[in-house]
TrEMBL record:
PANTHER family: ACETYL-COA HYDROLASE (PTHR43609). Pfam families: AcetylCoA_hyd_C (PF13336), AcetylCoA_hydro (PF02550). Residues 14-215 form the Acetyl-CoA hydrolase/transferase N-terminal domain. It comes from Azospirillum himalayense. Keywords: Hydrolase. This is Acetyl-CoA hydrolase/transferase family protein. InterPro entries: AcetylCoA_hyd_C, AcetylCoA_hyd_C_sf, ActCoA_hydro, ActCoA_hydro_N, NagB/RpiA_transferase-like, Succinate_CoA_transferase.
Amino acid sequence: MYRDRIRLKSLWGKVVTPEEAALLIRDGMTIGMSGFTRAGDAKAVPLALAERAATERLKVTLMTGASLGNDVDRILTEAGVLARRLPFQADPVLRKAINRGEVMFVDQHLSETVELLRSRQMGPVDVAVIEACAITETGGIVPTTSIGNSATFAILAEKIIVELNLTQPLDLEGMHDVYIPTRRPFREPIPVVTAESRAGLPCIPIDPSKIAAIVVTRKQDSSATILPPDGETRDIAGHLIEFLDREVRQGRLGRSLNPLQAGIGTIANAVLHGMIDSPFHDLTMYSEVLQDSTFDLFDAGKLTFASGSSITLSAGKYAEVLPKIGSYKGRLLLRPQEISNHPEVIRRLGVIGINTALECDIYGNVNSTHVNGTQMMNGIGGSGDFARNAHLAIFVTKSLAKDGRISSVVPMVTHTDHNEHDVDVLVTETGLADLRGLAPRERAETIIRNCVHPSYRELALDYHHRALQRGGHTPHLLEEAFSWHQRYQQTGSMQPV
Ligand code: COA
């Protein structure tokens, strides 16, 4: 019975259908919706919105934590509901609409969105739509498999719609730590001093009179689309573990390393998976997305604690982990994304950040977002929050994409998300480039030698040698810097014909 989950009885009368709740949302509004990398997203109200858009003009600004599941971004895009979208997405249909210029996408550091809202540099938020597994006796909202930006959306919004999801286990209650930073410019330090630190409340504290509607749902989170580790991702993991082992032997890290962060996607998940067979133990995570590898590491006895903002699992892992999520209590904490990704905390903890590059260049600049410099893929996500502030900012990528027609290491990236100053280590399946303390000319030598695929190495060396002859601190042949990308556009391959 859903009423057990609405512990503030005065709210029982607020239960309505998704269609009735969606009527609170009108054309031109800004909506703050729960959802972070397909976890804990609102699942019913957005669909009702899409249906309404068939018969009336309905265009909104949609803010979330990060990407959504259940095809919500696709459905809203196809219904023409999205005027503006932020701070992250990973949907192929929305991606195309963004690249056609039909949806204005604001690609933001994930830690920043609510800071901008709180300081009224963006917003206001008209309606928050938040998935919950329960509402407490005082009207506090207990989130589900993610927190993302939900807490601040709910606190700042004029009205709140709660999607009470009966498939989300009540055991999730107690796994959230909702801490809201105090106002600037006199902000207190955030009291998170270890991955395990509890700083806030187990629910989102709001004035219950703001809850304008409650919708009961039974739809599960979508599963992650990550692929299992392959030979190349295993090689990437191997290089990284060897490097970290060297850091330990040289006394720069202990056997438990520093708290780990791993970005979304197949490669980062595979790298963490590789830690199962590593010589490290008593690992901790201070990350944003907790993927399959987090639970594999727990079950292998390698990981003692994981802090994140969402739990995003493959279908098999979801079915295995969710029913027994209570058994991870005390070892797992979900935080608002501004805390999981907060520069202050990441710098304090000395996080080892492992994120994926779409492409990088011979000097170590990283493009995480734009294919050929113009076409948005997903967004910067939390990679910038972590890379700039990490103890070690590590970027991983396969050296080749599209069956070797693209080299992921190029003379100059066509879009820079993480500049050379923020990138300590680059890893591809061919090797690892430790860039710390190296000047650009040395960085290029190391990257070309270790990370470029043999089929592109001579080309890269030739470019660099000719650039060196021209001179400069960071030598380039500007007229040729994008020639590999141009060749790909013209011939379908970066390889010369
Ligand atoms: N040029 C063009 N396309 C490239 C490419 C390149 N240099 N490198 C990879 N790709 C393509 C792949 O071919 C693949 O295409 P497909 O979907 O048509 O098969 C796609 O990009 C994804 O690459 P994949 O190798 O499967 O990596 P991934 O799933 O690990 O995703 C990112 C890689 C970079 C797209 C992803 O990590 C991302 O969005 N990162 C930014 C956000 C982030 O880092 N957040 C971190 C905190 S969670």
